[in-house]
Write a structure and sequence with these properties.
mainly alpha; Lysozyme; 9 helices; about 65% helix; about 0% strand
């Protein structure tokens, strides 16, 4: 965590020294800002956290597809997309819709909001569940494999999930720094 904080400090100092807005926003763009703010407000989520999650998941590439088959901005698995569509009362669902930014943001923010509800609005745990699966996180917490605290991210059994949470948190700080007025 210290390395991340030092990296963040270095990025911030460099950004300040070389025109933070121009350089920082070049490396940390914020496309789809209007839609992100809309869905963040609709689901009571922090839009900068959403931007950080999207930056981490897909680098804002609407057509992104992971090696495991997750699709779109928020990298939603097709099975999860079917489940979300059913929860939202949509009888017909085509996984290709997940590459549409509006659909992806609508589904992804709804799902993230559900995770926030399930995990007492704890962003660290909700992010871990978003990446590693809600069932896995429940087991980790129940069996004391992870405390659920940011200072104990090294306890997360899945290295990918551990890195995902760290990266989203770093990106979150950067997006707050660059875009919060």
């Amino acid at each position: 965590m210290r390395k991340i904080m030092l990296l963040l400090l270095l990025v911030m100092l460099l950004a300040l020294a070389f025109n933070a807005e121009r350089i920082g926003r070049h490396y940390y763009p914020f496309p789809h800002q209007e839609m992100i703010f809309h869905y963040a407000q609709k689901h009571n989520l922090d839009p900068y956290l959403l931007a950080a999650l999207i930056k981490t998941e897909s680098n804002f590439q609407a057509e992104a597809e992971s090696p495991k088959g997750a699709l779109g901005l928020m990298q939603i698995m097709p099975d999860t997309g079917h489940w979300i569509a059913a929860q939202l009362g949509q009888e017909e669902f085509d996984p290709r819709l997940l590459t549409d930014p509006k659909t992806n943001l609508a589904f992804g923010t709804w799902y993230l909001a559900q995770l926030f509800e399930e995990f007492n609005h704890d962003p660290i745990i909700a992010l871990a569940a978003y990446n590693g699966g809600r069932g896995n996180v429940q087991v980790w917490l129940r069996n004391d494999r992870w405390t659920g605290e940011a200072k104990h991210l090294e306890q997360i059994p899945f290295p990918e999930t551990r890195q995902f949470v760290r990266k989203v948190l770093l990106n979150y700080r950067i997006y707050q720094f660059l875009y919060r007025n």
